[in-house]
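Memo to structure team: turn this sequence into structure tokens by end of day. - J.P.
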Amino acid sequence: MANSPQAKKRARQAENNRVRKGGQRSNLRTFVKKVLAAIKAGDKDQAVAAFKVAESVLDSGVNKGIIHKNKAARGKSRLNLKVKNLVLAS
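Reply from structure team:
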């Protein structure tokens, strides 16, 4: 357990950041799931629109320190590939 005042403060900050980032991470995953749901439904217009939103949310997550930049790039790449395959298939 933290003993010094600065260690106690850092423990409080770490807990607050953990809670805040958990909600933001959940929100990020929701936007990715919206893209996947649109792809599964076969709605290419909705999938493209959802992908554009998810792309910016992923980039925002990188800037906020929620996910690593390579994880965001990998996720965007995989989503983009699925959306492109959906558009080309129809």
